[in-house]
Amino acid sequence: MGAAILGIGAYRPARIVPNEEIVDAIDSSDEWIQQRSGIRTRRIAGPDETVVSMSVAAAREALATAGVEPRQVDCVIVATVSHLYQTPSAATLIAHELGTDQPAAFDISAACAGFCHGIALAADLVRGGSAGHVLVIGVERLSEITDPTDRGTAFIFADGAGAAVVGRSESDGISPVVWGSDGEQWDLIRSVGPLQPILTMQGSAVFRWASYSMAKIALQTLDRAGLTVDDLDCFVPHQANNRITDAMARAMGLPDRVKVARDIVDAGNTSAASIPLALDRMIRDGDARSGDRALLIAFGAGLSYAAQVVTLP
Ligand SMILES: CC(C)(COP(=O)(O)OP(=O)(O)OC[C@H]1O[C@@H](n2cnc3c(N)ncnc32)[C@H](O)[C@@H]1OP(=O)(O)O)[C@@H](O)C(=O)NCCC(=O)NCCS
């Protein structure tokens, strides 16, 4: 018995913030932001759109798509860096609000790579027999921990939530993960201050690391899955920056027919939420279909990363 993603859901905050609204505070321009990152607009959460409420909305959609009842969920894994409470986890409250039956529930901290870490854990829990259905949520409210006057981060980070239900499947729909970290570069993206953290980022160094190292990880992931770029239908990298996506696709020799996620254009960089949001968009737009093979690769603060090939529900 294998494991597969059975359903995907998303929640995008109602408020759309175009570049024009943020450029004055960082002495920038719409043109510069679009050229350097691909971002045109992003979603910013209102007071009622919390880490928990956005997660619950995305999770409900994922459960409905999967045809799984909340009571069938054995484990809830929440990937986030913007649940601003040391304890308890966001996962316990989200599990409760969903009407689940007291499942295992915990948060993981792997920044932008969090969702792919969660999928890897979920797949192994299901394959190992520890859980029947695992709900994996990637959620961020980065606007709360981003300095609107920081030129290096204010235009990049945004808010949203995405979720996936992982469950049993006759054929395995989630490949072995390739994951890791490079703690020597721990200080490149980090929050400063324990009580009201603010994100900082050394953008150029992150850009170099992601553009050069992540294509290799993507190819290793295909290799571990016994696949090549020719077997892929979709490429869904963390929506960090369109230029990083382009550099990776080039370095991997990705064929033109493979559909590439570009959710960043209207969503910004939503860290742990970016991959499920991008997947949801591709499915809705008809760029990804049931049964398609998608390479997911996420990377960020740590520096940490995780990648796997999944078959879409
Ligand atoms: C953030 C990022 C777009 C900045 O681009 P960059 O080319 O590295 O920018 P630099 O800091 O080297 O600055 C280059 C020039 O742009 C200017 N600049 C920096 N930020 C700016 C902004 N927001 N608006 C306008 N100009 C800006 C600088 O002043 C500098 O000008 P100069 O050449 O006249 O001195 C880029 O580093 C990046 O995308 N990094 C990866 C970020 C990322 O994906 N993070 C998520 C990982 S999970």
Structural description of this entry:
Homodimer. It holds the Pfam family ACP_syn_III. Pathway: Lipid metabolism; fatty acid biosynthesis. This protein is of the alpha/beta class and 313 residues long. The protein folds into two domains: 2-169, Peroxisomal Thiolase, Chain A, domain 1 (3-Layer(aba) Sandwich), CATH 3.40.47; 178-311, Thiolase/Chalcone synthase (Peroxisomal Thiolase, Chain A, domain 1, 3-Layer(aba) Sandwich). 30% of the residues lie in helices and 26% in strands. It has eight helices and 14 strands. The protein has helices spanning 30-37, 51-66, 90-97, 114-127, 203-224, 242-252, 264-267, 274-285; strands at 2-11, 15-18, 41-44, 75-79, 104-108, 133-141, 159-169, 178-181, 189-192, 198-201, 234-237, 259-260, 293-300, 304-311. The strands form four sheets. It has a five-stranded mixed sheet with strand order 1-7-6-4-5, with helices on both faces. The chain starts with a strand and ends with a strand. The relative contact order is 0.20. Coenzyme A is lined by residues 26, 28, 32, 36-37, 112, 151-152, 155-156, 201, 203-204, 206-207, 240-241, 244, 269, 300. Coenzyme A binds at residues 26, 28, 32, 36-37, 112, 151-152, 155-156, 201, 203-204, 206-207, 240-241, 244, 269, 300.
